[in-house]
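Notes from the pairing session

We agreed to fold both candidates in a single pass and log them together. This is the raw record for the first candidate, unedited. Please don't reformat it; downstream parsing expects exactly this layout.

Candidate A
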Amino acid sequence: MSGGTYNVLFLCRANSARSIMAEAILKKEGHDHFFGFSAGSHPRGEIHPYTADLLQSLDHDPSEFSSKEMEVYSQKNEVKFDFVFTVCDTMNNEDCPIFPGSPMTAHWGVPDPAAVTGTEAEKRLAFADAYRMLRNRISIFTSLPFQSLDRLSLQHKLDEIGQTTSSEDA
């Protein structure tokens, strides 16, 4: 792949936590080479309050993000995506959306922090853990030598990033 700018779509089911976090992270760390977007197959319609709180505490502006259907992008064709990453957790039988077209894709499953039960502190910790995992994966992704990787090698690297475990994301 050649150098330049890349549009990246993060997909999950509700588009209220993980995909919003990933969009925010890439927006901040994309260094004008990566532009992040997010959507959901069954969007909640609003950002989870813990997501908004976490983003605000980490100097992101939560008002810049919204929960929306993936059809917003696939029907309008206003944005051509180079990469589409699903961040839903298939380990917990969560359905991941499928995006049409020919962008490079990979599954970067992250446990759904909104599904965590327990104390408020435990729930907020789950959101912080999801953010940390996504930030580490996105950091690896944006550091890849895109100019020197062919499409097959790049696909292998994208898949490897999604296979990192929680302990490797630490």
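Candidate B (folded immediately after A)
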Amino acid sequence: MKNFFETLRNIWKINDLRGRILLTLGLILVYRIGCFVILPGVDNNALTGATGGLGGLLDLFTGGAFNNASIFALGIMPYISASIIMQLAGIAVPAIQKLQREGESGRKKINQWTRYLTIIICFFQAPTYLQTYVYGAGGAVIYDTWLWYVAAVTILISGTMFVVWIGERITDKGIGNGISLLIMIGIIARFPGALIEEMNFKMDNMGMVIFLVEIVFFVLVIAFCILLVQGTRRIPIQHAKRVVGGRGGRQMLSQGQRQYLPLKVNAAGVMPIIFAQAIMFIPALMFGGSTFADIFGFWYNLVFALMIIIFTYFYTAVTVDPNRIADDLKRSGGFIPGVKPGRKTAEFIDSLLSRITLPGSILLAFVAVLPAFAHKFFGVQQNFALFYGGTSLLIMVGVVLDTLQQIESHLLSNHYDGLMKGTKIKGRGSSLPPVGQAF
């Protein structure tokens, strides 16, 4: 405990880090307040909350804004959809590929295109949300006129773009990845209510001991997710000897420092789950009350797991390029001991990546279907079961670890101990950045 308070004092002493954390907390507060600002002309009491299926997941990611008919009801998800489309377009569209190679200027232009695409997506999602959820509730709209409808669509689109602006400001001026942080905050906001609901249900039906056992298993699942997110296979990298200047004009040979290239076991991050979920909800959107869309059903989760495995291989192939890694190593004078530089190095990395992606994809699929197991076989209530794995838990674990790593880097760069005295959060001690960081 003493080390914890000492770390907090060290954080407060660093002006830049203190300012970034305060700015991040302030912007998060603005976002959370906006989640409770109801659309003008809507009776919030007449709305029926979405507790399952697509609506339940969207409400989870927006921190309750979806069910509240808030000005932030669409949340950050349209921007996520636009980002995924732009990533996929980078594979097939030469113009986007060229921008990706242009560095900072190209990245700024791609980000601008992503914002335009977000607005276009919102133009479709905002009317759909009003028709299916607000009008579908019956009697929720107080002033049902075409002027109100236009205003409501405009407010929803503006709300999403304001959330995007908050996320980008956090990324640029705050601490952590702003977009991911906002999603995590929305998920965490629903956790206390789900926990209390589960505790009350267990105390009324099965007893406190069962609830405590569930909490122990929940902690174990979190530990497992941390291992999955942080797991890497380190490849030793050696640099060739080079001639450097010595004292008095003498020359000497310098052996390059031994480094490691960490290949992530889960190089695709949470993106395969997001892709699979988007496709799995298509039958529900097309056929309404299809039993196949039951997110806790057997067939849904079986197909869901298989698609996650397929998308993990797909997204890993998109984000990790062994040829580029081999070229970068060759240009920097680095090589893998026992492997020839160039094509042989690319083949070695590709073969190793294929072997570690299989267990990584299976473990990711297992985590994704854990909520169904928790609900069906262990009697965990639906709202709390969603935190036993899946997208929500992986996002929380990944974002928290990334934010802690950024805080630790600030502490170490200012000659303070890390968050845990005498240790470093895994990922910061590597000589080379982990390959395949997604979302």
